[in-house]
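Notebook, p. 212. Picked up where the previous page left off. The plan for this session was modest: take the two constructs that came back from the sequencing core last week, fold each one, and keep the raw output in the notebook itself so nobody has to go hunting through shared drives later. Recording the first one now, exactly as returned: residue sequence, then the structure token string.
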Amino acid sequence: MKETYKTNIPSADEIADMADSGEDISRFFTNKGKMKYPAQRISMDFPADMLKELDDIATELNLSRQAVIVAYLRHALDQHYMAQKYRRS
């Protein structure tokens, strides 16, 4: 039988139980993380041929259509901000 690696780090549920009992759990948090805001659901209409293109790309990249749209939109926004910065200088 394969041995599993056991750590002394408690699970999230165990940390929650410790907090509920009044124990100091600050040692489990580094405050080095970045806050991610929750996603908001929106509705958009796309032409059928564009959806076909997005689906083809998603299949090629083994991603969901949503992931492709988000990635491409992030890329477009980054380019927009870089162009603005370039125009100002």
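Okay, moving on. Second construct, recorded in the same format:
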Amino acid sequence: MTTNLQAATTLNNGVRMPWFGLGVFKVEEGAELVEAVKSAIRHGYRSIDTAAIYQNETGVGQGIREALAETGLSREELFVTSKVWNADLGYESTLAAYEASLAKLGLDYLDLYLIHWPVKGKYKEAWRALETLYKEGRVKAIGVSNFQVHHLEDLKKDAEITPTVNQVEFHPLLSQQELRRYCQEQGIQLEAWSPLMQGQLLDNPVLQEIAAHHGKSTAQVILRWDLQHGVVTIPKSTKEHRIIENAALYDFELTPDEVARIDALNKDQRVGPDPDNFDF
């Protein structure tokens, strides 16, 4: 299991992806964003996750460039993810969206490019575009986000390449057992967005009790639970002390009993949209 912040999982195409990274959902362009990215990289993070719809790729790219200059790391040591938005799902439009994301980020390639949502009747053409980008060596790995089992099954009918990653809402109140099992069987790496349920879990008594036992924060217990389930996780924070705290997960381990107690909190409760019922 993961022993440090640089620990990585090997995706189904052989590419290595860090188990832990920084998410920047709802972080606006500007100095705070640039500083958060730099701070994360400075403190050992090697994975940064953004998306076209976040409208902050320019700042993320600036943070990456400044961090590389400061730390002497190479671009190849980082793992950068972005996602194609729903309005751009289509063969040509997805190819164009990829170029637009690269231009904003100021990068030559992405490590991972995802279809952000499974828009009915649109995601197969978008997937064909991702396969083209992958075959041309323009992107290291391709995957999806917010796909349920039936979306993945549908995609599989026409896809030449199996997605490497499925990034979904995942936290103790939405532990996605069926999807997790399916992805494991198919060799698709599950990745958690909103792992802390946008802060709504931080005062959960079961989590607080386990955290107190380990001398850790509730957030650290949740993120450790993700990792022990083999789920890649990308908590969002712009505050340096929180960025450091979130990553301090490698000096303790949850017992099987504690993992089971956290698993038992599941209510299939979402904080984000339902992938089977969204209209954007």
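Notes on construct two before I forget. The radius of gyration is 18 Å.
Flagging for discussion at group meeting.
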